Amino acid sequence: MAHEQQSVSIPNKIHGDRTVTAYCTGGLGTYRLHKRWHIVHIASGMNIGGGRGGDRRTRKGAFAVMDALLQVSIDWSRSYEEIGNDLQVNHTAIMMALATARNL
């Protein structure tokens, strides 16, 4: 799966919004902040998956987590408010995808 670089705004109420360059595909992106890679929902800038699942110390590990999340039947290109119900319905599938990515 091809990942393209794109600027994404990450909201932060304490330190102010941050613009990062993320490797994006399918409505999700991954970017490095300090020593870890994070998965971000591009439309909202919200982190997805927290610290669960996968090896986020490497870009390869972060891509594995992102690709596992893209396998879940959610249209990640929609806004966070629109996919909120889908996230609740597919919670188990998301946790399984994160667990699978952890074992890669």
Q: Give average pLDDT, whole number.
A: 86
Give the overall silhouette. globular
Adjacency order of strands in the biggest sheet: 1-2-3-4-5
Beta content comes to 25-35%
Helix/sheet category: alpha+beta
Q: Which runs of at least 5 residues are low in confidence (pLDDT < 50)?
A: none
Biggest sheet descriptor:
5 strands, antiparallel
Number of helix segments? 3
Q: What's the gyration radius in Å?
A: 13 Å
Q: What's the structural domain tally? A: 1
| Helicity, as a percent range | 25-40%
Distance between the termini: 17 Å
Summarize the structure in words.
It comes from Paracoccus aurantiacus. This is Helix-turn-helix domain-containing protein. With 104 residues, the protein is an alpha+beta fold. It has one domain. Helices cover 33% and strands 28% of the residues. It is built from 3 helices and 5 strands. β1 (4-10) and β2 form a beta hairpin. α1 runs antiparallel to α3. The chain starts with a strand and ends with a helix. The model has no long low-confidence stretch (mean pLDDT 86).
Tag the structure with descriptive keywords.
single chain; Helix-turn-helix domain-containing protein; 33% helix; alpha+beta; 104 residues
Secondary structure topology:
Elements lengths: L3 E7 L7 E8 L2 E6 L2 E6 L4 E2 L11 H12 L9 H10 L1 H12 L2
Antiparallel strand pairs: 1-2, 2-3, 3-4, 4-5
Helix pairs in contact: 1-3
Summarize the structure.
This protein is α+β, with helices and mostly antiparallel strands and 104 residues long. It has helices at 59-70, 80-89, 91-102; strands at residues 4-10, 18-25, 28-33, 36-41, 46-47. Helices cover 33% and strands 28% of the residues.
